Amino acid sequence: MSRVKLTFLQVMVAVVSLAIWHILTTYPIFGRMILPPFFFSNPLEVVKQIYVWFATGVIWKHLYVTLIEAMLAFAIGSVGGVLVGFWFARQPRTAAVFDPYVKMANALPRVVLAPIFTLWLGLGIWSKVALGVTLVFFIVFFNVYQGVKEVSPTVLANARMLGMSERQLMRHVYWPSALSWMFSSLHTSVGFAVVGAVVGEYLGAAAGLGYLIQQAEGVFDVAGVFAGMFVLAAFVIVIDTIVTIVEKRLLVWRPVVGDARP
Amino acid sequence: MTETAAATAPAHSNDAAIALNAVDVAFRLADGGVYRAVESATLNVADGEFVAIVGPTGCGKSTLLNIAAGLLAPAAGHVDIFGQTLGTLNRQAGYLFQADALFPWKTALENVAIGLETAGTPKDEARARAADWLSRVGLGSFGDRYPHMLSGGQRKRVGLAQVLIRDPKILLMDEPFGPLDAQTRQIMGNLLLDLWNADRKAVLFVTHDLEEAIALSDRVVIMSAGPSARIIGDWRVKLARPRDIAEIKLDPAFHDLHREIWQMLKSEVIKGYAQAEGR
Q1: Helix (H) or strand (E) holding B54
Q2: Domain presence at residue B120
C-alpha cells in the first residue's frame, strides 16, 4: 500500500467515525435520537470546547503540569529501576530474598496507592509523580534485570579473554545490554508515566489534564470530558513520536526486523 | 597488554606454549551425578606450532580449548603455559569463538579497538591500529558498520582482527569457520594462514572437519567419542608451507594422510553418532 493511500484511509477512518457520531447525536432517526446529546455530546461541541481552551490559553497550564509530572515520574522511576535492576542481577542472593516482595508489589493495582500518596504528599504534583514512579519503576527494573542476566555467555567470555576487568565488563558489556532492554520498553514506560500522572490528577489535584477531565465530569459536561480525552490522546502521540526519534538515534546498532543488508 | 608472571619471566626454549598434563574434565549434572567429558588428556603445543584437534561431535574438543583458555578449571591434571601453571585466565591467549562473540552495540572498528583500549592504549592510537587491522582482514571500508550489518564471513574477519590486534602468543580457535559456507571457509582459511605466517603464533585449532585440519596445521590430534573422550592419535602433517587451502587438497601426500587418519576417525564418528542418538 502506498503512503498516500495509507494516510488517506487513516484519515477516512476518523472522518467516518466523526460523521456517524455527529449524525446519531444531531438527527433523530425514526423519531428517536439514538445517541442522546446529553450523554454523548457531539463533535462540534467538543471541537468548540478544545478551541476555547487553546484560544483562552487555559489548557497550557494543565498540559505543562501533566508533562512535568510525567517527566519526573519517568526520570525517577527509570533511575531507580536501572540501579535496583543492576544490583539484583549482580547479586542473585539479594534478588532471591526480595523476589516474593517484588512480585507482590508489582501485582498490586497501583490505583489503590493514589489516595495514600495524596495523604502523604498532598494535592500537589508529587503525589502524582509518586504514582507514576511506581508504574515506571517496575517496567524498567524488570527489563534491566533481564538485560544484565541475558548477556550472551559467548560475548561475556570474549570480553574476559580480551582482558576486560570487572569494571570494564560493566561499562562495555552489561550496561549496553541492559540499556538496550530498557529502551525496548521505552514506549511502555513513558506511556505509564503519563497514565500515572493523569490518574493521579483525576483522583485529586488542582491542575492537569486529569483534573480537567474530572472537573468536566463533575458538572456532567460531556463535551469537556471528550475534549480532555482528545487533547490527552494528541499529547500522548506527540510524546510517543519524540520517543521513537530518541530510540532510533540510540539503538542504531540494533537490527530492524526485515531490514535488508546493505 | 597485561603483563603476567609468565610473560615477564624468561621462558625456557624447551617449554611448550601450551602443555595439558593428564587433564580430566568433569561436569556436575542436574541430577547430582558427574559427567566425565574428557579423560587424561596430555597434549603439548610448541611455540609457533599449529595444532588441530579433530573429533566427533560432542567429544569435548571445545571443552579442552576452554581449559587452555583458563575459562574452565580441569577436574584433575594441570595446564602449563610457557612453563607456568595456569591458575586463572590465560592472559597470553587470544580466543576466536564458534558462536558470534562480537559486541553488537559496537561498530566493527570499536570491536577491534576494544582489546587495546581495555589494556590502556590511548583511544586514538587504538582506533588507528584497529583501522589498520580491519584493512589487513579486507574490511578497510567497513569500520563504521555494526555486526548485524555484516555477513557471517565478515563478522569472522572482524573477530580475527579483534583477537590478533592484541598480539597474543597463543591463538585458540573453536571451529571458527564452522557456520560459514564452503567457499568462505576456504578464503578464511587462507587468510588465517597468511596472518599466521607473519609471526607464527602457537595455535590450537578445534574442528570436526578433517580436511580443514590437515590443510591448515602442522599436527593433527584425534579425540575419541565421548564421554571420557581421550586423545587417541597424533599425526604430523609434513606438507610444505606456505600453503594454499584449495591447491593443497590436490596433493597426493594430502590424500594419503587423509586416508590414514580417516581410518581411525571413522569408527569414532560412528560411535559419536550412536551416542548422540541414544541420548
Answers
A1: strand B50-54
A2: yes
Query: Which residues in chain A touch residue B146, judged by CB atoms under 8 angstroms apart?
Result: 252-253
Q: B146 and B206: one domain?
A: no
Chains A, B: CB pairs < 8 Å? 71
What homologous superfamily is domain A41-250 in, according to CATH?
MetI-like (1.10.3720.10)
Q: Are residues B148 and B228 in the same domain?
A: no
Grade residue B5 by pLDDT with cuts at 50, 70 and 90.
very low
- B149 secondary structure, DSSP code: G
Measured in whole angstroms, the distance separating CA B69 from the mean position of its chain's CA atoms is 10
- Which ranges in chain A are annotated with CATH 1.10.3720.10? 41-250
Domains contained in chain B, number: 2
Contact between chains at A176 and B105 (C-beta distance less than 8 A) = yes
Tell me, yes or no, if A159 comes closer than 8 A to chain B by beta carbon.
yes
pLDDT digits (tens, 9 = 90+) for B87-129: 888 889 999 998 889 999 999 999 999 999 988 889 999 999 9
Cα–Cα distance measured from residue B135 to residue B262, given in angstroms and rounded to the nearest whole number: 38
Structure ipTM: 0.85
The radius of gyration of chain A's CA atoms, rounded to the nearest angstrom, is 23
- Does A152 contact B at CB distance below 8 Å? yes
Q: Which of A163, A172, A173 sits opposite B91 (nearest CB)?
A: A163
Please state the three-class secondary structure of B66-123 as a single string.
Answer: HHHHCCCCCCEEEEEECCEECCCCCCCEEEECCCCCCCCCCCHHHHHHHHHHCCCCCH
Closest CA to B216 of B242, B178, B255: B242
Interface mutation vs chain B, best among A150, A152, A161, most B CBs within 10 Å: A161
